[in-house]
Amino acid sequence: MVNTKTEMTKEFNPWKYVKVDPDSVKNNPYLNPKKKDVEPKATAKEPSQSPVKVFSKDDYLVLEDLVCTDAEGNVFERYDNLYVRKDVERNNANQVDFTPYQAIVHFESQNHFLPSFALSCNILATLYADKTNLESNAVLMQYKDKGNGYGWQAQNTVVKWNKGKGEVIHYPYDSDFPNNGGSDNINQGKRHSLDFKVKGFKTENLEAALKNKHFNTYIKNLTGLPNPEILVEIGDYFSKPAKVWLPINIGNVATTRASWLGCYGNGFYLYTSGILSNSDAARGVLFGEPR
Question: Against a cut of 0.70, is the pTM above it?
């Protein structure tokens, strides 16, 4: 049977003798609509690097964005740029020893200041994060051994121990030194006091001490760190366990003690048991450009 529709299409095909110009078809927007431009696929961005926190400048390391917080998360000390001496005070390469009060007076006379225990802990945490930098690591390692076999360094903090309670005093005044102090009007306008409850305290490893609620509060107020566990890591880096060293008969005898930070013997110590007459190394810091 003949397909009449097909035969009619062949007979009456109007395009039978028309020659097609391929270019005209290609460029005809009705016959060949222009394809929309396809947006290139977004490539995954490289993860942004953390901003540099430590710079070297002459005899100083410049540390950025140091913030000290108490156990409640309140900021009590902050610096956009802090100049940290690359070495402890020396005289002809020999370490100069100071009592805490003497160190405070000495650095204030140089337009520097002795850092609080909290500020020093934040300095250590920053240096530890930057330890692949040789200069940062060199200063960090002085808290393990500053050349005489141990790393003790004086801090601008005293702790008042009383029965059942205590007081961390960053940047103490003359009146906070019941002995071995002076009348030089130290730390004017900077004093910051933080109370804590003494319950279940003893000299022990920092990691264990942090599990005690009241001990944890004390440690955070002392170190100014929201996560003082970083000091456990630093102790491991020193190959010395981080420990909290407290006075004997704590909580039974009212006493004011000096604070020292660094390695001694078999530990990396947060030491708040020092009598105010003890003397050892000290490191100055400066807020703003050296003069």
Answer: yes
Alpha helices in 97-182 (DSSP H): 100-109, 117-129, 134-141
What is the average pLDDT across 265-291?
93
Asked if 94 and 87 count as a contact pair (C-beta separation under 8 A), the reply is no
Strands 153-162 and 94-95: unpaired
- Strand segments (E) across 126-188: 153-162, 165-170
Give pLDDT, residue 107: 98
> How many residues are recorded in the chain?
291
Q: What is the mean pLDDT of the chain?
A: 87
State the DSSP string of 22-42. Answer: HHHHHH-TTTSPPPPPPPPPP
**Residue 68 backbone dihedrals phi, psi, to 5 degrees:** -105, 130
Dihedrals phi, psi of 289, to nearest 5 degrees: -60, 140
Tens of pLDDT, residues 225-250? 999 999 999 999 999 999 999 998 77
The contacts found for 1-5 with CB under 8 angstroms, 24 or more apart, are: none
Say yes or no to pLDDT of 6 above 50: no
Asked if 263 and 283 count as a contact pair (C-beta separation under 8 A), the reply is no
